[in-house]
Amino acid sequence: MISTSFLLAALSLVFSLSHEPSSQARAFTPNSRTIPTRSTSLPSFSPSPSPRHSLRLHVNDPTKSPIASLADKIQTILAKTSPLNAAKLSLVKSLAGDYDAAATRQKLDGLISENPVLMLSFTTCPFCIKAKSVLDAKGSKDSDSRYYKVVELDVEGDGKAIRAEMGEMLGRTSVPAIWIGGEFVGGCNDGPLGGIVKLEESGKLDGMLKNVGVL
């Protein structure tokens, strides 16, 4: 049985990582130690990559950073283990506080039906940034002229309420959450259709975007 302390720790980590900067390398402070010069009498060797080097390698794909990978594994556990997922849904609901559930659900339904492509996102979530990069590659990267609608739940005043209603609708609260033509396709690399990255890799994404008139 999974302990309560583990559950709380896992939930806390998932929520904190949702608001971490996307480039962990920027948060890294180089060690100020002076590295002694290697004697020429010693055999040469190739040092193992430092954590800083590993993070810099993944700057172009924030989902490959060690912290993002850990968050993804925890999210997978939460999604597959119903008691943990139920606890997360309850936590998201409580964080939303008192809100008009009917009005919020109507707003969410409207966003889904009125936009050919909709993404619910957090501004600093590495998986949201990756998903946006996949969609941006199909059109304009200018946020003012994107062919898809992004709702940043950590910026919108009713973002927590929308996320809570998304949980009621889908049984999951993770972001990104992406709809194409009113159909929920998943997140970055998970969901009923495998997520936006897998749709792109399989060659299905272009067809879906053409079907809704954005390509």
Brief account:
With 215 residues, the protein is an alpha+beta fold.
Question: Which tags fit this structure?
Answer:
single chain, 215 residues, alpha+beta, four-stranded mixed β-sheet, 9 helices, disordered N terminus
Q: Helix proportion of residues, in percent?
A: 40-55%
Based on Cα principal axes, name the global outline.
globular
Number of helices: 9
The mean pLDDT is 77
Roughly how many Å is the radius of gyration? 20 Å
H and E string:
HHHHHEHEHEEHH
N-to-C terminal Cα separation, in Å? Answer: 49 Å
Query: Order of strands side by side in the largest beta sheet?
Result: 2-1-3-4
Detailed description of the structure:
With 215 residues, this protein is α+β, with helices and mostly antiparallel strands. It contains 9 helices and 4 strands, in the order H-H-H-H-H-E-H-E-H-E-E-H-H. The protein has helices spanning 4-17, 51-57, 66-80, 82-96, 101-114, 126-136, 159-170, 196-201, 205-211; strands at residues 117-121, 149-152, 177-180, 183-186. Strands 2-1-3-4 form a 4-stranded mixed sheet, with no helix packed on it. Strand 3 (177-180) and strand 4 (183-186) form a beta hairpin. Helix 1 (4-17) packs across helix 3 (66-80) and helix 4 runs antiparallel to helix 7. The longest helix has 15 residues, at 66-80. The radius of gyration is 20 Å and the shape is globular. The relative contact order is 0.13.
